[in-house]
Design brief:
Layout: H1 8-23, H2 30-51, H3 62-85, H4 94-112, H5 114-133
Helix pairs in contact: 1-3, 2-3
Length: 134
């Protein structure tokens, strides 16, 4: 679909979602939008279960376009519903709390998989050094 820029397929499908929003989805009630989000959730879950993953959507054939649209529709419409329903909340020191949570999540993976992570980093370092030498 976009051979020179592999990220453009996602932007293309988000553009389609924005066109759908402009055409008429913006006029849907919160209930109707909730039903649409539920349908998109079921579609995404079905895709993940039948394919084993949700990878795809970047080539221009019927199967890949279906995967790409399925991947795009759930987060787009769920975000739209969330922006309508959720009320913003002020959290004191939000940047500090978010930074702390991200650090904990990333550090937890390192602790749980310390040996695998060390092997991965060592392998990357060795590969980098070999490439620099040759």
């Amino acid at each position: 679909m976009h051979p020179l820029n592999s990220v453009e397929w996602s932007l293309f499908l988000e553009y389609i979602a924005n066109i759908l929003y402009a055409i008429g989805i913006r006029k849907l009630s919160n209930t109707a939008l909730s039903i649409l989000v539920s349908i998109a959730t079921i579609g995404l879950a079905h895709l993940a279960i039948t394919n084993g993953n949700v990878s795809g959507g970047w080539t221009l054939n019927l199967e890949q376009v279906r995967i790409g649209l399925t991947r795009t529709m759930y987060p787009f419409f769920a975000g739209l519903l969330l922006s309508r329903v959720a009320k913003p909340v002020r959290i004191k020191n939000a940047f500090l709390w978010c930074s702390l949570l991200i650090a904990i999540v990333l550090y937890q993976y390192f602790i749980l998989n310390r040996w695998n992570m060390c092997r991965f980093l060592a392998g990357c370092s060795i590969k980098f050094l070999v490439e620099k030498i040759t």
